[in-house]
Design a protein that fits this description.
Blueprint (H helix, E strand, L loop, with lengths): L33 E6 L3 H5 L1 H10 L7 E6 L4 H6 L6 E8 L5 E8 L2 E6 L4 H8 L6 E4 L20 H8 L7 H15 L5 E4 L6 H16 L1 H10 L5 E4 L7 H11 L7 E3 L4 E5 L14 E4 L3 H25 L4 H5 L2 H15 L11 H12 L8 H5 L2 H18 L5 H13 L17 H18 L2 H13 L2 H4 L6 H26 L6
Parallel strand pairs: 1-2, 1-6, 2-5, 3-9, 6-7, 10-11
Antiparallel strand pairs: 3-4, 8-10
Helix pairs in contact: 4-6, 6-7, 7-8, 10-12, 10-15, 10-16, 12-13, 15-16, 16-20, 17-18, 18-20
Bound molecules: D-mannonic acid (CS2).
Amino acid sequence: MELVGEGGRLNAGALDGLPAQVARPGYDRDALGIGIVHLGLGAFARAHLAAVNDAALRAGAGLDWGICGVSLRHADTRDALAPQDGLYALALRDADGSGASRQRVGVIGCLLETLVAPEDPQVVLARIAAAGTRIVSITVTEKGYFHDPASGRLNLDHPDVVHDLANPESPCGVIGFVVHGLQRRRAMGLPPITVMSLDNLPANGHLLRALVLTFAARVDPALADWIASACAFPCSMVDRIVPRTTDVDRHEIAAALGVRDAWPVVAEPYLEWVVEDRFAAGRPDWTAGGARFVMDAAPFETLKLRMVNGAHSALAYLSVMAGWATVDEAMARPGMRRFLGALMGQEIEPTLPPLPGLDIEKYRQGLLQRFANPALRHQTRQIAMDGSQKLPQRLLGTVRDRLAADAPMPGLALAVAGWLLFLRGQDEAGRVYEVQDPLAEALAHRYEQAERAAEQAGEGPAAMLAWAGVMTGYEPVFGDLGQEPRFVRAVGAAAQLLRSLGVVGALAAMEPSRVD
Ligand code: CS2
């Protein structure tokens, strides 16, 4: 998009002329070398890892920790950032005490190189196998790992996995790049490195390691042994809400910078990064940017995935169906806020592992506040994407724990039913939308089967019970949960509530049972 009426373009030459209130790198960019190769250069990585890394560099981390960012599919990020010398603005937005939106803008400088993998996979492999590279970090979203969401196993039939096993010189997926890149390092006699997932997956480091080893064993068992014994795969919990950047954002940020930035990112001020301190070849001190190094990230991951992401997904499906476009719009509905508060307080929190020092009440209230942030305009449709890849770790682990404790789960069931009904691709007002999900086709087929089963079962609750039985029988997402009558009944009852009363009615109907 052309931004008219502004000054020049953001680039190295423009840094000195930026308004005083815009934070800028402040370290010697010309002296910076690449130490990190990041695969999956989306908005999240640019607002999280790169922002934290930039703060570390400003605080004096070694100048060998610059980032090479790799887009695995599209050229748009490179095309926008190359003319800007890799510079882009990060706008942190929230509301002040009176509810008015405000933003703090800073320019991130640690992205030194941007590659587009499909244009030249060799260059990416060479970067991973460069002597200076010591960390390969990854944000490719849940579906980018090519695993079966319920079991966590590598899907060896996935076309990208098949392609990458057959084409070591030109991989296209993240596992292929990592394994073939590590293979080169080993062949060149270079030291092992750290491979670090920053995606919202449970035990993301362990999961990534297992996927990489499964793939590597098919390439060369000795390579798999080397990776297993010498490379590190720390787990981490990452948290920052980063909505997709819009043209309106670009205009607002250009106004703050006085120059055009074609590829800025917008995020909330809040940031968490809890990462296991297991690195094979060193790391920057990211604490300056808000990171925490721990021995075991698991309890933090469970907390975050179940509370933040579980609540986010619950909100998203119900909101898309009700026609609420943004998260803050949904949060302004008293029914939604109360529902999420109860879902967390009564159903999710009892399943969380202990975390010494955590004030869970404060965490929950803070989270509701973050969701209500009116300055983000976070689209519920964005969060609703890829539900098949998200539900297991966000909602279904909690469901399993509730079942094991023989505890009720009406809120979790409403969230799951919300997803299942969302799969119809039509909201309550009859507006049609696309269900974006790698398993969309199979899910649509399931949905038809479930509708037929419901018709055959007659009317009302019996129909929705039959419907829920078919939907929750979808094993790639639910595993064996579909065999669990208490779960199927709860989902059937919730779906019946949503079908008969709509989202607003169902949220209201949930309330009486929620008085402690
Ligand atoms: C969201 C997350 O889009 C989604 O699925 O739930 O991206 C969420 O905003 C982040 O995980 C917050 O840390």
